[in-house]
Amino acid sequence: MLSRLSIKNYALIDALDIHFDSGLNILTGETGAGKSIIMGGLSLILGQRVESRYFFNQDKKCIIEGHFDVSGYQLAPFFSEQDLDYEQETILRREISADGKSRAFVNDTPVTLGVLKALAEKLIDIHSQHATLQLSTEAFQLLTLDSVAQNHTLRGQYSATYQAYRAIQGRLDQLREEAQQARSEADYHQFLYDELAKANLHADEQGRLETEQQQLTHAEEIKRNLFGVVYALQEQEMNAIALLKEAVQQLQQAERYMAALAPQTERLQSSFIELKDLADEISRTEQGIVLDEARLVEVNERLSLLYMLQQKHRVDSVAGLIALREELGGRLEALSSDEAEINRLEMEASQLKTETFELAAQLSEQRRLAIPLVQDEVSRILHEVGMPHSRLQIVLSPLDTGQVRSSGQDKVAFLFTANKGQEPQPIGKVASGGELSRLMLAIKSLIAKTSSLPTIIFDEIDTGISGEVALKVGDIMERLADHMQVIAITHLPQIASKGKAHFRVYKKESADRTSTGIVQLEPQERVLEIAQMLSGAKPGEAALQHAAELLGN
C-alpha cells in the first residue's frame, strides 16, 4: 500500500508530505484547490512521462517520492528479475531537473521508466472519471473476466507461449521467403558454380601461363639470340673464351718473372672458368628451346578462359574467381541448410501452435465459467447503488477458426441496460456518465476481491450521482477497503463520511504566490468539512447535525 507520498516543487506545490491510512482515505477540497495536481505528482512515480516543466520554483528540481509497504504481495521475484534490492518498505522516487531531464529510482537504485511503470502497475490502480471509457474496450472486458476467473498464471503461460509461437512463426516465414528467393536463383547459381568448378582454378596460374605464353610466342627469336651469344663466346674463330684463354696464358708467363702478378692471374683464371661455364649453360638453354605450337595453342586457350571468366564476373584476378566460386558454393550449401532449419522450425512451430491453442481453450473455458459470477455480482452491486433494473450481459465468442491473438482466441462484448424492458446494448451507446461510474465501481470492486493489488485510487468517479446512491457508493468503497487500500477523491459528503482518514486539499495565498496545501482532518474538523460540502462555506446547525449523523457521531 501507499503509506507516504512526498511532493516537492511541483506545479502549485512547494512541499507536501502525506501519510495515508491502510483503509479508505478521502481527499476533498474545492475545485481547483490542487487535488488533480497531487494525482499528477503521484502519476510521475508511477512511470508517466513528464508533459511539462511547471515547477513551483523554476530554479530547483522537482522530487516526487512514494513509500510503499509491499510485504505480503509476492513481489520479491520481480525485484530479483530487475536486479533491485527488495525492501518491505519500497521507495519509488522521481527527480525532474529544470532542464527537463528526468531520473527514476527504486530504493535508491536508478531504473528506467519502463521498470518503474512495471512495478507501479503491481502497486496501484488509478481510476478516474475518464477511465469509464475503458469499459467499452475489449482489453478491459477480457481483463475483468480473467481477474474474476483467477487466470493470472494461465494468462501468463498463454502469453509466453503465444509470443514464442509468433517469434518462431515470424522466423519461419522469413526463412521460407529467403529460401524461395534462393531456390528461384539456385539453377543460375549452380550453373555459375559448375562453370567455375570445371575451370579447376589455381590462384598463381595466370602469372605462370602469361610468362610461358611470352616465351612460346618468341621462341625462335630467343633461340637465335642465345645461339649468337654461344657463337660469340666459344664458336667463332676469334671467340671470347679462346681470347681469354690466351690472355691467361700470357699472364701466367709474366708471373714466372713477377710473383706480384699472382692475384691478377688467379682472378683472370676464375673469369675464364666462369665464362666457359656460362657459355655451356646458355648453349644447353638454347638447345632446350623448342617452338611448340600445340603448347602455345593450349596456353592461349587457357588464358582466354581465365580472361573471359574474369570479365564475365567483373573481377580482376583468378583469386577473385576462386572467392566467387566459394561464395556460390556457400549459397548452395546454405540452401540445403535452410531447408533443414525450415523443417526444424516447422516442427517447433507446430508444437507451439498446439500448446497455444490448448492454453487458449483453457482460457476460454475459465472465462465462460466466470461470466455468470460477473453478471450476477455486478447486477447485485448496481441494484445496491440505485440501479435495480440494470443488467449486464457478457457475450464471449471465438475468433475465426484457426485464429488466436495476444489475449487468446476469444472476442467479448459487454452489453448493458439500466432500464426495465430495454434490451442490452454495447456499453458506450446506452449508459450515461453516472451509470458508467457506478458500473465501473461495481466491476472494480469485483476485481479487487480477486486480485492482490495493494491500492486503488478513485479520482472523482462520483460524476452524476448524489443522495442515497452516493451513500451506497460510499458503502461499497468502505467494504472494498477491507481488502485493499482505497484512496478516493470526491465532492460528495456521503462518500467523504465513509473515510477512515480524511484529507482536505486547499489553496493558500501569500503576498506574491498561490500554493497548494493538504491537512489531515481531526474528527471535529471532519464534521465542519462535510457540513460545508453539504451546504456551503457557512453551514448552519442542520448541516452540522447532518454531517455528524453521516459520520456516525
TrEMBL record:
Q: Which Gene3D superfamilies match?
A: P-loop containing nucleotide triphosphate hydrolases
UniProt xrefs under InterPro entries: DNA_recomb/repair_RecN (IPR004604), P-loop_NTPase (IPR027417), RecF/RecN/SMC_N (IPR003395)
Domain RecF/RecN/SMC N-terminal, which positions? 2-510
Q: What terms describe the molecular function in GO for this protein?
A: ATP binding
Q: Known Pfam families for this protein?
A: SMC_N
Q: Does the keyword tRNA processing apply?
A: no
GO CC, alphabetical: bacterial nucleoid
Highest taxon above the source species: Bacteria
Q: Which residues form a coiled coil?
A: 335-362
- Biological process terms in GO annotation: DNA recombination; DNA repair; SOS response
**Which of UniProt's keywords are assigned here?**
ATP-binding, Coiled coil, DNA damage, DNA repair, Nucleotide-binding
Q: Which purpose does this protein serve, as stated in its record?
A: May be involved in recombinational repair of damaged DNA.
Q: Which family does it belong to?
A: Belongs to the RecN family.
**What is the protein name given in its UniProt record?**
DNA repair protein RecN
